[in-house]
Amino acid sequence: MRGTPFFIGLCSLLSSQFSHAARPNDLNFTAEEVEKYGCGEKCQANLREGMKTDREIFGGYPFDHDFYAIASNFSDAKPGDVLKFEPFNVSTLSIPPDLTAYRIQYVSTGMDGENVPATAFITLPYMTYPGQKPRLMAFAHGTIGVTSSCAPSSSYNFYDYYTWIMLAIAGYAVVGTDYTGLGNNYTAHKYVNCVLNSEDTYWSVIAARRAFPNTFTKRWAAMGHSQGGGAVWGLSENPRVTGSESGEYIGGVALAPSARVFDLSLESAKYHELSGEAASAKFMPLIAKGIQAVNPPSTKIDFLSDAAEKRSELIDKLQLCLQGSGSVTEDLPLAGVKSPTAFQNSDQLKDFQKKYGAAQGKKAFRDLLVLQGMADETVNYNATKIAYRAACEAGNSVRLSLYPGLDHRPVLTASVREWMPWLDERFRGVASQQKCVMHTWKPLLGE
Ligand SMILES: *[C@@H]1O[C@H](CO)[C@@H](O)[C@H](O)[C@H]1NC(C)=O
Ligand SMILES: *[C@@H]1O[C@H](CO)[C@@H](O)[C@H](O)[C@H]1NC(C)=O
Ligand SMILES: *[C@@H]1O[C@H](CO)[C@@H](O)[C@H](O)[C@H]1NC(C)=O
Ligand SMILES: *[C@@H]1O[C@H](CO)[C@@H](O)[C@H](O)[C@H]1NC(C)=O
Ligand SMILES: *[C@@H]1O[C@H](CO)[C@@H](O)[C@H](O)[C@H]1NC(C)=O
Q: What is the residue range of the signal peptide feature (predicted)?
């Protein structure tokens, strides 16, 4: 399926504006259109490449506008309510073929506690042993973009890169939220927002239980990567997990988490001497959107150059996802960052981290296991260490395991022998002895 266009007579579902595109992000641009945003030849080449890579995320899977549109009964619903519930035809997806898969639209909560529609996928394992119920895992995905066309549930494999599929293969039932603003466009996506992304994750669990009553274990846990690692860290500090409405939350696994984006930007810039080559520089237009999403939309971003801000308008215009968004500022000096001291002087980044970051001195309610590669070009491990120390100072129980030589994605599979048994123990009810501890592993072939 990967990379193969997959069009199934969907024309009637598509809005007229994109009548010739299978997905809202399958757009083409002319030089004239993008030059208005200051995107010259080099920028156009990067953009073309970025959009191509974005398309590969979805594998040509059609975007079902009907499903992502707000449900007619949204206005009377409560958080955790299921608004839409549909099975997938698994043979149209590229996922382990024994699974059954569904998608739901449900109600989450927004920045002022208001109800917001969100969508999620759910997978069920083929079986459990007699007398057992499938264990329920909430999966929190990593960066895929900020525009509504970038929903993981609209991808041919639900945006797997050895992430949620590891849980499914281990026999867990998985609910994977898209987060609000991805898929449904009722509100702007709250990018790298540990507080609000944890809300979406929390309510996805309640919605999954309402969609499948009495199906799952009472115990549930969460696992997330990158942005989703931040969501899981936020979940451990979200007082909702102490209640019984969701069942019994038993802890979370945060892989390469973006818990504190001010520190992250700063540490990464320090390491790369703001060369603009840092992979994380690619995330700055997205982080700017994350800040705008909790401020008036026209808020001027204090760490982006004017040129970068202008070009960022292309993200919405062309419905860019992860790679496309990163490509618009790639050829600018310092990749569009205003100056070498722009991050450390950014009040917006500081405020955002304080308000919506994790490991800000809040009390955590459950254990957290954090796994981090030491050659991570996206989430700098020194920033994760800062978050770890802040959490421990607040009296929380965090285990941080460092993996020398590993970049952002390899840590997912490299650490499976550590986090899978950790989850298994929590589900079996083994009392946690975890205290704050930091450990550095040794790779087989040395480092
Ligand atoms: C964009 O261009 C590609 C090939 O260059 C083409 O296959 C596709 O249909 C075009 N998309 C739209 C929306 O015109
Ligand atoms: C939001 O989505 C609806 C239906 O899915 C669409 O009709 C509408 O144009 C979209 N609004 C924006 C601002 O993109
Ligand atoms: C909303 O409507 C759908 C479709 O009719 C239904 O399945 C769902 O249960 C309703 N949800 C609520 C909360 O009323
Ligand atoms: C599921 O998709 C496959 C592949 O496109 C198709 O052959 C099959 O008829 C579909 N099944 C149903 C029940 O729609
Ligand atoms: C992490 O911090 C140490 C100590 O300050 C420094 O030597 C190292 O270069 C930093 N590494 C990265 C990837 O930022």
A: 1-21
